[in-house]
Write a structure and sequence with these properties.
Helix content of chain A: 10-25%
Number of helices of chain A: 3
Helix content of chain B: 40-55%
Largest interface: A-B, 33 and 24 residues
Distance between the termini of chain A: 31 Å
Radius of gyration of chain A: 13 Å
Radius of gyration of chain B: 50 Å
Number of helices of chain B: 16
Strand order of the largest sheet of chain B: 5-4-7-8-3-9-10-11-12
Oligomer: heterodimer
Strand content of chain B: 15-25%
Strand content of chain A: 15-25%
Strand order of the largest sheet of chain A: 2-1-3-4
Order of helices and strands of chain A: HEHEEEH
Distance between the termini of chain B: 167 Å
Chain lengths: 113, 592
């Protein structure tokens, strides 16, 4: 069902962005390692979640560490998949396939505990 | 994932397990070549045991001595901290990074930043490590306190599975890895890493003995290889780690044929005439008061008199006390101290751990460049560690001194309860010349004796000598062997007197015999003289008789002449006169 996102590395992040609107832009970065089912489902979960809660004010960048291994160091990536909230500050990380929507919202500070 | 990655790198069963030398002094001897090549090794230890340093030295030696670049991934300290921490040990990490021989990576985990939702793996770590290894072509990897990641994630099940996968992956990559872990009580690691790291496990710890701490290293496991099974003390000093192998002595040093005097002429005599070999190790052991320090003082003075420097480690008495006491037996050390040839270094053995002592001694030797080092006594070190630790420390020390051709003299206090050799059993094999001092108790007095238990490479006396200490110093006197054994002291004196008496009695008898003979000769001569006289007397008698006869004949002839003259007067012929004479003669014969 997520076949439209299968080729994650070739996604143009611009396609994923919502329309520019007022308010802070959520700068999100999703680290994956190849196109494993877990990474694909993480991206699908993220996309769905953003559409629901951050419509029009988010930007997702997908980084495949298999293609760009040197990028693992900068954001201290150990777990795959890892979602990094680069903006707004402070930096937040949510790891896993993002299947638990509630926890992702907590992790991204979209919802208080 | 490959189901059995171990098979690819598993050891051949012929025992020739390939190894990667660590370059850590002593460790490669214990492990018979180093760590298992291409496999991960677990280094476990408590806080401050030197785990990180172990790993860092492994990488640094690899990069500098064996041409193997390394990747250092730290989960606790930042690279900047690490660089600063090991600089004092002489490791220039930044320099190696600049030369592309080493790369430093800091894995920062902040739990507060991380929310977990659903399934994940640690592929990020793998990617990062793999990238670092590939960039340098690294053959060595250090993961310093990998277990810290357990604090960053909730799902221990995932972590354990991922770590298992990590170790397999490291093996597949063929890198030799050191993974440090914090020991928790009896456990080698907090999260049971030893379950996955079964190839080689090394434990570091600190042992407190009587408030003195000693670092120790133990090879807990080494699959497919022989290894030393002891617990080895190790040091951390300016050169990094050095493990003290117990069995192996660096046997490569040159040996000297030079002899140096012990300062006691008769002892030199017992040692084949020249004294100790330069650079040899000498042990003087004995119970309290047998004169061990006196022997040391004589040797020190002899060295100084030769113009050589002597370093005297006093572990029981203060230098002043030694100087005062030795002056009382006629050995004045003060002038040599003043002239800078003799240096004392006093410290309680219990003041530091063994490693600290060794470091101190090492440093003093480096500075002073002595040709004789005295440790008086080594016994108290036993309090600072186990006999094994003490032995290994002494091995290191003797090794150090021998390679520098420095003669070493150790004194050792033995318990008077007959366990004379026991306390030295540990070090005896390291000792070239062993002087044993004992008290011999007899006739209500104790006397010192000395004999040479062994002396390598020289003909030495097998005699027990009495060891006397007077205000003129130490001397050795021959002992007498009586029916009850060796005689010393007053008994020896008595025996000597008896001997003298015996000798003089014999002399007298000879004298008497001589006089007797003289007398006999005199008597004989007298007898000869008497016989001579008697003979002379007889001869004289005989001569007298002859003379009488002659005179009688003369008288007779005169008388006959007178008669003839008379007869001529009467006109008768002389014939008739002769006839008468014959008649007279016949008549005489008839009368007989």
């Amino acid at each position: 069902m997520a076949t439209e996102y299968f080729d994650l590395t070739n996604l143009d992040p611009a396609d994923l962005e919502g329309d520019e609107e007022e308010g802070p832009v959520w700068d999100l970065r999703l680290y994956v390692a190849g196109q494993t089912p877990r990474c694909i489902s993480a991206f699908a979960n993220l996309k769905r979640l953003c559409e629901e809660h951050l419509e029009g004010k988010y930007r997702i960048e997908v980084i495949d560490l298999l293609a760009n291994p040197q990028l693992a160091e900068g954001d201290q990536i150990l777990a795959i998949p890892t979602l990094v909230r680069r903006l707004p500050r402070p930096l937040r990380k949510v790891i896993g396939d993002l299947s638990n929507t509630e926890r992702v919202l907590v992790g991204l500070d979209l919802r208080p505990l | 994932m490959n189901g059995h990655p171990e098979d690819a790198t598993d050891a051949s069963f012929d025992g020739s397990l390939p190894k990667t030398p660590t370059g850590i002094a002593g460790l490669d001897e214990i492990t018979q070549g180093g760590l298992p090549k291409g496999r991960p090794t677990l280094v476990s230890g408590g806080v401050g045991c030197g785990k990180t340093l172990f790993g860092v030295e492994f990488l640094v030696r690899g990069a500098t001595e064996f041409g193997e670049p390394g990747v250092l991934m730290t989960f606790e300290e930042t690279p900047a901290e690490l660089v600063a921490n090991v600089r004092s040990l002489g490791f220039d990490l930044q320099g190696l990074v600049d030369e592309k021989k080493l790369s430093l990576h800091h894995v920062h985990i902040d739990r507060r930043e991380i929310e977990e939702t659903g399934e994940y793996d640690l592929e990020g770590l793998f990617v990062r490590l793999g990238y670092a290894i590939d960039t340098l072509g690294a053959q060595r990897v250090l993961l310093d306190t990998l277990e810290s990641i357990f604090s960053g994630f909730n799902n221990e099940g995932i972590l354990r599975a991922e770590l298992r996968r990590l170790f397999r992956w490291l093996k597949e990559r063929g890198v030799t890895a050191v993974i440090t872990a914090e020991a928790l009580g009896e456990r080698l690691s907090r999260h049971g890493l030893e379950e996955f790291l079964s190839d080689c496990v090394i434990r570091l710890d600190r042992q407190m003995t009587e408030d003195v701490s000693t670092r120790r290293l133990e090879i807990v496991k080494y699959r497919g290889s022989g290894h030393g099974t002891n617990v080895y003390p190790f040091l951390i000093d300016r050169g990094g780690l050095s493990v003290l192998p117990i069995t192996s002595l660096g046997l490569e040093h040159r040996v000297s044929r030079d002899r140096v005097s012990s300062g006691i002429p008769r002892l030199d005599g017992m040692l084949g005439g020249g004294g100790f070999y330069r650079g040899s190790s000498v042990l003087a052991s004995g119970t309290a008061g047998t004169g061990k320090t006196s022997i040391a003082a004589h040797a020190a003075r002899a060295a100084c008199e030769r113009g050589e420097r002597c370093l005297y480690f006093a572990f029981e008495e203060s230098p002043d006390q030694i100087i005062r006491n030795m002056r009382s037996i006629g050995v004045d050390l003060q002038p040599w101290v003043d002239r800078g040839l003799l240096r004392f270094h006093a410290a309680r053995p219990t003041l530091h751990g063994l490693e600290m002592h060794l470091t101190t001694i090492h440093k003093c030797v480096e500075e002073f460049q002595p040709s004789l080092v005295i440790l008086d006594p080594i016994t108290n070190f036993v309090m600072s560690g186990t006999p094994t630790q003490v032995k290994s420390m002494l091995i290191r020390l003797i090794d150090l001194l021998k390679t520098r051709q420095i003669t070493s003299l150790f004194t050792s206090l033995t318990e008077p309860d007959g366990s004379l050799e026991r306390s030295e059993a540990g070090v005896s094999s390291l000792i070239d010349t062993w002087l044993l001092l004992r008290f011999v108790e007899s006739n209500g007095e104790r006397n010192r004796t000395l004999y040479i238990l062994k002396s390598r490479g020289m003909a030495h006396s097998n005699q027990v000598r009495e060891f006397t200490i007077s205000e003129r110093g130490v001397d050795l006197v021959d002992v007498y062997l009586g029916p009850t054994g060796v005689l010393t002291g007053a008994a020896r004196f008595m025996e000597e007197a008896r001997e003298r008496a015996r000798a003089s009695a014999q002399e007298e008898e000879l004298e008497a015999r001589k006089r007797e003979l003289a007398r006999q000769r005199l008597a004989m001569e007298r007898t000869i003289a008497a016989l001579h006289e008697e003979f002379q007397a007889r001869e004289e008698e005989f001569q007298r008789l002859i003379a009488q006869e002659q005179s009688r004949q003369t008288i007779e002839r005169t008388d006959r002449a007178k008669l003839a003259h008379l007869r001529y007067d009467h006109g008768e012929v002389s014939d008739s006169s002769e006839e008468r004479m014959d008649t007279v003669g016949t008549g005489e014969q008839d009368g007989n």
